[in-house]
Amino acid sequence: MQLPWRAAPRAALSSPLTLLVSIATTLLLGFVVAAAALHSSSAGSAALAYQQSRMCPHSVHPSLDGDGMPLAAAAEMAARSDLGAAYTPIGRPDFNGLATYGRFGYRPDALSHLTVVQGGGTGLWVPQTIATAARVQIGDRLTGSSLVVTAIYADLAQPVSGWWCSEAKTVVPNPLGGDGASTSVIWVASSSDLALLPPEFTGYATVSLRFPVEPPATLAEAEALRDKGNARLTSLGLSLTRTDLLSGAITAARTSERNVSSALLPLVIISVLVGLAGVGTVTVQWAQRRHSELRLLWVRGASPLSLGFRGVLELGLPLVLGGLLGLVAARLLLPLYAPGVVLAAGTLWVALGLVLAVVVLSLAVTVLVAAWRAHRTFQTQARTRRLSLVPWELVVAGLAVVAWVRLSHNGLGTALKPGSLPRVDVAALAFPLLVVLAAALLATRLLRWSLAWSHHVQWWRVPAAQLALRRLAAAAGPVTGVLLVGVLAVGTIAVGSAVAGAQQSALDSKSGVFVGANSTVQVSQDIALGRVALPSSLRGNTTLVGVSTGALVVDPVTFTDAAVLNDAPAVRSLLSGLRRDGEIAQAVRIGRSANQEIQVPGLPLLKPVASLPSFPKLGTRGYVVARDSVPAAEQVGSWHLWSSLPLSALTSALQAEGIHYTNVADRGRVLDGLPFLTVEWTFGFVAAIGVVLAVVAAVALLLAVEVRRRQNAVSGALSTRMGMRPSVLWSSHLLEVGALALLALGIGSVASFMSAGAAVPRLDPAPWLNPAPMLPDLLPLLGSMVTCGALVVVVAAWLALRGVRTARMGELLR
């Protein structure tokens, strides 16, 4: 009696196919749970990295700012930080009798981050604008001080480098502001030089204390840096204004991580249940193959539970090995499915714990299923009621209806405010997946009924189709299982890709509407009046736009060169038809604006003659008038350059021509994209799970063909001996496998496209901005799935014919 138990682990080698299926089943189980843990952790780290990318590097560590203090006190406070700066109030420094507005400042290593135009050394560094206005030359002495000018540098302008980012409001002047409102900084070489300044600059100084640090990679590191930084600021005991941007970034990243985790939890649970059902199926097949041995052991006194542990002795090692391989695969493939590769400390241990948990569950399922099978076979008769009689598709369809109600009423689950993250409603997110699952269950039930009825079909005029149908009917169980997994795979990939792609395009289109173009800057009215010419490098990609309260003044000829538009030719045609008749100017009414004549300050009386549902910068409310219809350009509120170029290219061209600008806007940074990224990351993992299911479906199909190799060999060899041409047999196997793949692809794609099309507009992280998310072009995805499916079909048909070509008739008959 001891030999069968001790030899059980080695007995598994007698059935390599079962061994392979056992390893593959828990490998996928382990991969799903481990990948979910790793993906959630990487989502938190990626969210933190994204938030930090929108912060000034020197603002990651909590910082201090103050004003209205004596210059000596400001210099003393600045010296207590790693990177402190002190600035004098704006005054009129005098060089050789010519005074202009300016201020002095000191910041360690500031001189090395400036572009020298003339000179150098360790004296006063004067900005070029002040040097030009006051006719400052190298060697000039500041009146009332012993400090001498040793260098002239190029003024700082937006966008500034990261080193200057936290000081931009102080060091970057607004050239369009009033006199004395802002100015460039005259830099001194050392903090001791501040004491040498004239008395009028020694009061009402400002100070900034910055603490440069390496950006934290994980949330735990960020929290430690925040706590340590705030404690450090408290220990300084300075009565200054504290700025802690890192806390907001941590909160947003934590919320994003929780949203991703909560949204993935139902999908992971369903995947685990499906995987455990697969383990149970493997155990049932093992019990069928070991029927004689199990009966012998039962006759000799072994209980059903002990026979269940006999299954663990044979299948346990493959199950454990598969789970560990799943963990390894999840870690190695992390860059392919996760938003980042940085993991919080201990995440791998959490993933290992989850993998061990599902391995233990798999072993428990093996014991229970084997024991139940032995009990039902040797002690009681099978019950007539089966779970297959339960209308599971109706249950899932009911859940889909509930999810749709929540989705249609709540969207992502909460009424959002600008800058806030959505608290994801898991039930709402599950709607498209529930629709796919209901379609998969309905398709398998209908297929099972059809195969049961298929013996009435007589297609002998098309022998390839008749034989394919007979083979499908003879393997109804594996066929319906492959169809179920295949529909789920196709649908999950399509839903995940559709929603993730919609979030990407929604962020891009919303930011385009919000800014109007890829980049914009405000300029003086001199360009509109023709006093300053637009640089030649900006012609063909830039347009001048006037902004008044609720209205835009555009140039119909150049507007479509730069603005973000869905249908540029139609907009160009509409704008080119705008005219002015006396005191009334024709205008385009946007969205919900009143369809009546309206007076906008600085513009003539506007009369709507056409309408558009939305427009860049205006959104869904406002009016658009042609520039030629505006009699006085100086009365327009403000003038802006819109460009299709990146912001750096636009500002560089303006700086090269000496054109002043302010209020820069970059399409890529104007909106906080983390709410969009959170939903995108969630459904990106859904698509990754779909790829896993697709691999499962393909492997299951190939294994089903391989298991029936002897049967196919007998059937095919006899058919060819009876006169069937090899091409007909080849067509028959292609029809058999191809029909299954085509059903899975068709049902999965239709269900997913319809459900995603209904869900995508309501999964809007920023509903106050237009346009709403739209279903992306899914034809490339469909084409790739068709290509992969065709490849699997050809391989499966080749495997089926391989046994026929190599079969020996004598051995088959014997």
Automatic annotation (TrEMBL):
Signal peptide (from-to):
none
> What top-level branch of life does the organism fall under?
Bacteria
Report the transmembrane regions from the record. 263-286, 307-330, 336-369, 389-407, 427-451, 472-495, 681-705, 734-758, 778-801
Presence of the UniProt keyword NADP in the record: no
| Keywords, alphabetical | Membrane, Transmembrane, Transmembrane helix
Can you say what this protein is called? Putative ABC transport system permease protein
Q: What is the lineage of its organism?
A: Bacteria, Bacillati, Actinomycetota, Actinomycetes, Pseudonocardiales
